[in-house]
Amino acid sequence: MLEIRDLVKVYPGPVAALQGIRLxxxxxxxxxxxPNGAGKSTLMRVLAGLLEATSGSVQLDGEDILAHxxxxxxxxxxxxxxxGFYPALTGEQMLHYLLTLKGxxxxxxxxKLCGELLDRVNLADAAKxxxxxxxxxxxxxxxxxxxxxxNPRLVIVDEPTAGLDPEERHRFxxxxxxxxxxxxxILSTHIVEDVAVLCSRFAIVRKGRIVANTTPTAARADLxxxxxxxxxxxxxxxxxxxxxxxxxAVLWEGKNRVRVYDADGRAPEGFEPAAPTLEDAYLLRMRxxxxxxxxxxxxxx
Length: 301
Ligand code: ADP
What we know:
alpha/beta; 11 helices
């Protein structure tokens, strides 16, 4: 169990990037969803022991991570957002190098461990190829291989699917789902689909605060009967924003389709009820004034 209590991080500036994060995370895949600048990477880096928090506490299975980062580091795997590779090395050489840097101890030798890890992430056939020939998805799988060294209790992956094509993304999802079967995996992302596909539980972070902590099913169920879809352009759309919460207006086959939320279930004229999606739930949390989101969270807990 990972317990994060009242975590605050203020960068010089000052920039209050984390403003009292409180989360309890059980084994399995946990999504941390939020827009750019919300504080996700800051939180991931604090959890990984790479950045000092201003205040607050984090315990992994009862052990204080912030007080003893060196003790916990061995039980922790981290795939940062900007994972650097040496393109001229082969996958196997790169992994060997990363494990050496990490100080991983392998009873049967590092070479054997590299082979096992490459096999685990389905890269055994590409072990002797140079990293520069790898696709984005293969590089990310190599990143997961190094994160899995030492069989960590906690694995943190920061925005891992950005830039992957749909097929690579789905392959990567499968790998993450497999590794989450036996440990805590925290997936930080701004992509709603990542959470919908993978996470049994997730939190939404906005401006350094948690504004939702729920399951995809509950988040959708909360909106049942309150989401409507219809066509609106120009002045009609402008008018709609005054009477309803407009979740999004997107072009669909060349026409403007608008999704709105109404807490009382009142459909705007000409609009039809729509099945709520996780994206609706996310956009609603982004549209609501921050204080309202926080009140909603308190009511839900
Ligand atoms: P996210 O990962 O959700 O995009 P970040 O954690 O990177 O968000 O950033 C959260 C906030 O902290 C942003 O306002 C960002 O500009 C600010 N920030 C991030 N790193 C630094 C830094 N080293 N110094 C000052 N401000 C920072």
